[in-house]
Specification:
Elements lengths: L20 H12 L2 H14 L3 H25 L6 H8 L2 H33 L5 H17 L2 H27 L14 H15 L4 H4 L7 H31 L1 H5 L4 H6 L5 H35 L18 H17 L2 H25 L10 H14 L4 H21 L2
Helix pairs in contact: 1-7, 1-10, 1-13, 2-8, 3-8, 3-10, 3-15, 3-16, 4-5, 4-15, 5-6, 5-13, 5-14, 5-15, 5-17, 6-13, 6-14, 7-10, 7-13, 8-15, 13-14, 15-16, 15-17
Length: about 425
C-alpha cells in the first residue's frame, strides 16, 4: 500500500518554486549532453564499431521506458528527492534509502567523470596542466556556484546548454560535407559489443530524470516536470544520433576508439584548427553543465533524505542567506573532487552507470506498484523498464560490479547501524 510522506520538516526547509519549463528542460539537457557524447562515444565506438548508433538507440529506448515511470510518479506527487521519496513511500523505507544512497553514489561518480573529462580536454589544449588538479578545482568551483542558489545555477546552466548545442550543430553541419559512407562497412560486427556499448552510452542518458530531483523548485511541477523530461530525452537522443553518425562518417570507429577526445579527433579531418578548438571548448562547456547539475542533484537528494531522517537531520537545514542546502552541497562537491582525484575515467563511468541502473530499477518497481486510478501509462511500461534495466546491468565489467556492490553494501550497513 502506498504510504504518505513524512510531514516532519526542519523549520525553514521548504524550497520555493523558481524554475519554468525552459529552466527545467535545460537542467535535463545539461545533465544528459556532456560526457557521453564527448568522451564515452570513443569507448562505445571501440565496443560496437559502426553500430554505435544502435547502442545509442537501445540506450535511449531503455531510458524512455524509465522516463515514463518517472512521469507516472511525478504526476502522482512531485517531490524533492524523486525516486528516493517514491521508493520509500510505495515500496518500503529500506528500498527508499537504498534508492537515495545509490543515486548519490551514481551522481558523485558522474560528477567525477565529467570533471576528469573537462580536465583531459583542457590538457589537450594546454599540455602542461595536471588533469587531476584541474578536476578537483572544477568540483570546488561548481560547489560554490550551487551554494548561491538554484536560480543562479539554472541561469548559468541555460547558457552552457545553449553554447554546447550550438557547437554540436556546427560539428554536424560542417562534418556532413566530409562524410565518408565507407566507414560504416561492415556495419554490424558483434551483438555483445552493441549491448556493452549501450551500457556505457546509458551513462550519457542517465541525467534525464535529474529535473525530477528538484521538482519542489519547479513551477506547476505536475505538468512542467513530465514535459521537460520528455523534451530533454528526445532532443538529446536526436543530437546524439546525428553527432555520432557524422563522427563515424568522418574518421571511422577505430580512430574514435583510440582517442580520449573523440569529437575533437573527428573534426581534425576537416583541417581547421579553429573548429578543433571550438569542439574542444564545446566539450568542456557540455561537461561543465553536467558537473553543475550533478552537484545540484546530489545535494537535493541528501537534503530530501535528511528531511526523512535517513541521513543526519542537520543536512536538512537551509543556509540563512542563500536558502540552499549548504551542507549537502559541500558534501556533494567534496565527494566528486575526491573520486576524480583517485579513479580513472572508464571505471568511474562504469560504477556510475551500474548505480544509476539500480536506482532506476527501483523507480520502475515503484511505478509498477503504485496503486492509483487512472494511471498515466499501462503497467507494461514499468515492467518493461524494470526488465531492461536488469538486462543492461548484465554487461557491467566485473571490477566495476564489485565496486558498485561495495557502495551498495556500505549503504546497507549504514542503514541498519543508524536504526539501532
Amino acid at each position: 500500500m502506498t504510504q504518505p510522506f513524512s510531514a516532519e520538516r526542519t523549520p525553514g526547509s521548504r524550497l520555493s518554486p523558481a524554475l519554468g519549463l525552459i529552466d527545467a528542460t535545460a537542467i535535463g539537457l545539461g545533465a544528459i549532453i556532456g560526457g557521453g557524447i564527448f568522451i564515452v562515444t570513443g569507448i562505445v565506438a571501440g565496443l560496437a564499431g559502426p553500430a554505435l548508433v544502435l547502442s545509442i538507440i537501445l540506450a535511449a529506448a531503455i531510458s524512455l521506458f524509465t522516463a515514463l515511470s518517472f512521469i507516472e510518479l511525478t504526476e502522482w506527487r512531485p517531490a524533492e528527492g524523486s525516486v528516493y521519496v517514491y521508493s520509500r513511500s510505495v515500496l518500503s523505507p529500506f528500498a527508499g534509502f537504498l534508492s537515495g544512497w545509490m543515486w548519490i553514489t551514481s551522481n558523485i561518480f558522474t560528477g567525477a567523470a565529467v570533471a576528469l573529462g573537462i580536465a583531459h580536454y583542457m590538457q589537450s589544449l594546454l599540455p602542461g596542466v595536471n588533469p587531476k588538479w584541474i578536476s578537483v578545482l572544477l568540483c570546488l568551483a561548481f560547489t560554490l556556484l550551487n551554494l548561491v542558489g538554484v536560480k543562479h545555477s539554472a541561469q548559468v546552466n541555460n547558457v552552457l546548454v545553449g553554447a554546447k548545442v550550438i557547437v554540436l550543430l556546427l560539428f554536424v553541419v560542417v562534418g556532413a560535407f566530409h562524410f565518408k559512407p565507407v566507414h560504416f562497412t561492415p556495419f554490424f560486427t558483434s551483438a555483445t559489443g552493441v549491448f556493452r556499448g549501450a551500457f556505457f552510452i546509458f551513462f550519457a542518458f542517465a541525467g534525464f530524470a535529474r529535473v525530477s530531483i528538484v521538482a519542489e523548485e519547479v513551477k506547476n511541477a505536475r505538468k512542467t516536470v513530465p514535459r521537460s523530461i520528455i523534451l530533454a530525452l528526445v532532443l538529446s537522443a536526436l543530437i546524439y544520433i546525428a553527432v555520432s553518425t557524422v563522427a563515424l562518417g568522418l574518421v571511422g570507429s577505430s580512430r574514435l576508439a583510440g582517442s580520449k577526445s573523440p569529437l575533437a579527433e573527428a573534426i581534425r579531418i576537416v583541417g581547421s584548427p579553429a573548429l578543433v578548438y571550438a569542439v574542444s571548448l564545446g566539450g568542456m562547456l557540455a561537461m561543465a553543465s553536467v558537473l553543475l547539475t550533478s552537484i545540484l542533484g546530489i545535494s537535493r537528494m541528501i537534503f530530501a533524505m535528511a528531511r526523512e531522517r535517513d541521513l543526519p537531520f542537520l543536512l536538512g537545514r537551509l543556509h540563512p542567506k542563500y536558502h540552499t542546502p549548504h551542507f549537502p552541497i559541500l558534501i556533494a562537491g567534496a565527494g566528486c573532487a575526491l573520486i576524480s582525484s583517485f579513479f580513472d575515467l572508464t571505471a568511474v563511468v562504469a560504477v556510475s552507470t551500474f548505480a544509476t541502473l539500480f536506482n532506476y530499477s527501483l523507480a520502475n518497481a515503484s511505478a509498477l506498484r503504485l496503486n492509483i486510478e487512472p494511471r498515466a501509462y499501462p503497467r507494461i511500461i514499468p515492467i518493461s523498464g524494470l526488465l531492461l534495466c536488469f538486462f543492461l546491468m548484465l554487461f557491467v565489467q566485473a571490477h566495476s560490479l564489485v565496486a558498485g556492490m561495495i557502495c551498495l553494501l556500505l549503504g546497507v550497513f549504514y542503514y541498519f547501524a543508524s536504526k539501532r
